Every structure is written in structure tokens, then in C-alpha cells.
Amino acid sequence: MPTMHERIRADLLHKERSLWTALTSADPAPAVKKLSNQEVNLMFPKMHTLTLEDEEAFDEGLKPPFHRFDGYQLDDVRTIVIDLMAGAVTYKVRAVRGNQEYRATGSTTWNQAADGEWRIVAHQETLL
């Protein structure tokens, strides 16, 4: 039977993949909102920080074709258990759309909400 920390790591990795599936979708804002803590900070390259304090700016920042890729791959993934209700995932991401390639490092901090769901507290990407 997996340990508590192994289960948390698996949950965090699953949630990170859910985040990237949302980010690379045709319309990411609704799914990203659902994954986010109310005090979320999203920091993408060449953009201002997105928060839910200004939902209009949040929706505008994630409007299509934001991060619209044909596929993505996470490499050098590390899941870090901060405590039983918080963790972080760090990685390198490679995404492609046609002949265009996107390479970055990424980090997402998650916390477990009262309903038991993992929510994004902060997400950051840095271009390589």
C-alpha cells in the first residue's frame, strides 16, 4: 500500500497534468478557474500576474489561443510534499504547435481545500 506522501505526490502530478491539459485547451479560463484557489497567482512569461481578484483580466489573459499547443511533455518532474495539505510540482515543459516549440521551466504550488480538492495557489513559467 502506498504511503501518504506517495499518494499526495501522485495526486499532485495528476493535478499538474490536469492544469496543462486545461492550459493547452481551446478555452482554458473555465477549467483553470476550477483548479484555482481564490487567492491564486498565475505568472506566465511576458504577461502581468493573473489573479481571481480581477476575473475580467483573468479571463482576458487566458483567452484563446493562449498556450494552444498540439501536445506537451513534462520532464524532470519533482513533486514536493510541503505538508499533508500543501505541495509543489516543478518541471521542464516542452510543447509544440506545428513547427513552433515552447520550452520553459514551471512550478505550481497546490493546497488542499476544505472539500479535499487540490487547488493552485501559485503557478509560474520561465522561458528557456
UniProtKB/TrEMBL annotation:
InterPro entries: DUF4440, NTF2-like_dom_sf. The lineage of its organism: Eukaryota, Fungi, Dikarya, Ascomycota, Pezizomycotina. This is DUF4440 domain-containing protein. It comes from Penicillium angulare. Residues 14-120 form the DUF4440 domain. SUPFAM superfamilies: NTF2-like. It comes from the Eukaryota.
